[in-house]
Amino acid sequence: MTSIIIGILVTLGTLFILLSAIGLLRMPDTYLRISVNTKAATLGVGLVLVGTAIFFNDLSTTSRALVIILFVFLTAPVSAHLIGRASYFMGVKLWDKSVMDDLRGKYQKHSYVLKSKTDDTPHDNIDHTKNDIHTRIDEDVK
Amino acid sequence: MTLNEYLSYIILPVLGIAVLLIVYRFIKGPSMADKIIALDVLITTGIGIIGVYSITHGRSTFLDTALILALIAFLSTVAFSYYLEKRNRKK
């Protein structure tokens, strides 16, 4: 009975890890790959470690597995946010079909200061959609 | 089919296929950020492989290695993103 539960948990975790690997390969954009990393892989590793804790049925092993799960769950969003912020500053373009960019024109290019208005000093702002013709015409009109 | 055979012959090869896909993204990745994300996912998958391996071999000592790998993954991602930000900043 215990082995069936362990098998189900480990199978689910492996499926989530495999899906995160496929998503990392197939997603069209850096930011979407970050979202794949921080959700699916974290859940898969958590399920596999819960299976490990059930298999050993021991206080020290269970506490170690819980510490690893807690650590991964705490640090995955922080690292995803940091690498997303750094890639936005590096000038990684968004996907062509992404609907909106809330940060468009709000970060200063050199000082990385976040502003709440977009039209203060338009030449210093980070804008990843300037290659698009329509937005460029709109900015020229302004 | 016992649990040990199931884990050894089905689960571990599937995890190996996942590692191969992530390594392909790590080599190909168009920008530097893609490679860092692939490295992070690679170490996270390694934690899962260590968990399955400790079940098949019946030794819980391997989980210490998984804890240290989780630490190293977080620290390397933070350091890489910090230096990538500083590289582009011009005073």
UniProtKB/TrEMBL annotation, chain A:
Keywords: Membrane, Transmembrane, Transmembrane helix. Signal peptide: none annotated. Coiled coil: none annotated. The chain crosses the membrane at residues 6-25, 37-56, 62-83. It comes from the Bacteria. Pfam families: PhaG_MnhG_YufB (PF03334). InterPro entries: PhaG_MnhG_YufB. One of its GO terms (molecular function) is sodium:proton antiporter activity. NCBIfam families: CPA3_mnhG_phaG, PRK12674.1-2. This is Multisubunit sodium/proton antiporter, MrpG subunit. It comes from Salegentibacter echinorum.
UniProtKB/TrEMBL annotation, chain B:
It holds the Pfam family MrpF_PhaF. Signal peptide: none annotated. One of its GO terms (cellular component) is plasma membrane. InterPro entries: MrpF/PhaF-like. The keyword Transport applies. One of its GO terms (molecular function) is sodium:proton antiporter activity. It is found in: Cell membrane. The keyword Ribosomal protein does not apply. The chain crosses the membrane at residues 6-24, 36-56, 62-84. It comes from the Bacteria. Keywords: Antiport, Cell membrane, Ion transport, Membrane, Transmembrane, Transmembrane helix, Transport. It is a multi-pass membrane protein. Belongs to the CPA3 antiporters (TC 2.A.63) subunit F family. This is Multisubunit sodium/proton antiporter, MrpF subunit. It comes from Salegentibacter echinorum.
